[in-house]
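User: I'll paste a sequence; please echo it back and then give the predicted structure.

Assistant: Echoing your sequence first, then the prediction.
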Amino acid sequence: MSDSRDLLILGGGLVGMTLALAAARQGLSSHIIDRADPAELTAEGFDDRATAISTASWHLFTNIGIAEGLEQFACDIASIAVTDQNLPGRLDFTPEAHEGTLGRMFPNRRLRLAMFEAAAAEPLINWVSKAEVIERQRSEFGAAAIISREGGEPEKLMGRLMVGAEGRGSPTRDAAGITIAKWDYKHRAIIAGLTHSKPHGNVAWEIFYPAGPFALLPMNDDADGTHRSSLVWTVSEDDGKAVTKLGDRAFLAEVQKRMGDVLGEVTSVGARSSWPLGFHHTAKITGERLALIGDAAHGIHPIAGQGLNLGLRDAAALVEVLTDGARIGLDPGDAQLLTRYENWRGLDSFMVALATDGLTRLFGVPGKTASAARRLGMSAVQRTDLLKTFFMDEARGVSGDLPELLKA
């Protein structure tokens, strides 16, 4: 069996699925192949993680038609508070009323559901789940993937451009022999949902400790009015397993000690998960009839909550490049188009990656002197409107050369 489409997207996560939906809006067809079972990915309790969606990414969701169904699950981020170990010298980022929010928080499950439902209803998307890619083929004439599904014969799916979107361990990237720079932070992110006595006021807290950032991200209250937030706590790799295994009472005590009274008393904690943290960035993001997007191309520290948003910028840029090419009759795998995508996204993603790496190292320097110097710098930023506006624009994703899909 064979079937040919414009795009052959390997990886059906949030970035790969967004690419397929955005491409379909521009008349580009795709195969999207993923090994996971969507029923498992959207099951209650599978993934308690939540994701910050920037203003620009929300524009993208609006432009591809999924924002309306997601709106009821959004929790606005009205302000970001940054402190060094809850010591004096707090930095606040609060946009003017006419500028809107700094972003929105969503449960990952809700993002997946919205995208999966939209993809299932889109005739230009052939979504193949629970499938293993057993062979990848690329040549000047096109791209193909040989896939295997449980109990079936191997199938061949063809496209004019192969897109690697499988995440940090992308086998498509590795099979293409693309060089990658990477290092391990020797940190783990502990993720859990919290309930607490005080309302969060739509404030996202970033409390920096030498071991790593401690982030409290606002979520919608429960139906009964219980206040909720999402915790992303970075700990050393050595401490990660021990922290994950703490009983609820001990874990809550550790959380309370680090967050102080900003959310009042922590009353309960949801299921905990942990993820190793590392940095990687590819030497290039394209090859012969190949483009990489999202974590397949770059993996950054979650210190600024920009990982998924960076991947969504990739998807929007790639769709714009391919759409512009289609208008003048160019094939999606045309080398000129891929060069434009490389030049557009390569530098931007690298600069964001360097910035997050620098912040991680800056706030990781221990000692009272280093802390005092950081707080002095934060106080200077707090008094400088121009700098605060710059950082807020970066957080909202509205700076730089934006693809049209990321604009209102």
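The mean pLDDT is 91. The CA atoms of residues 97 and 261 lie 27 Å apart.
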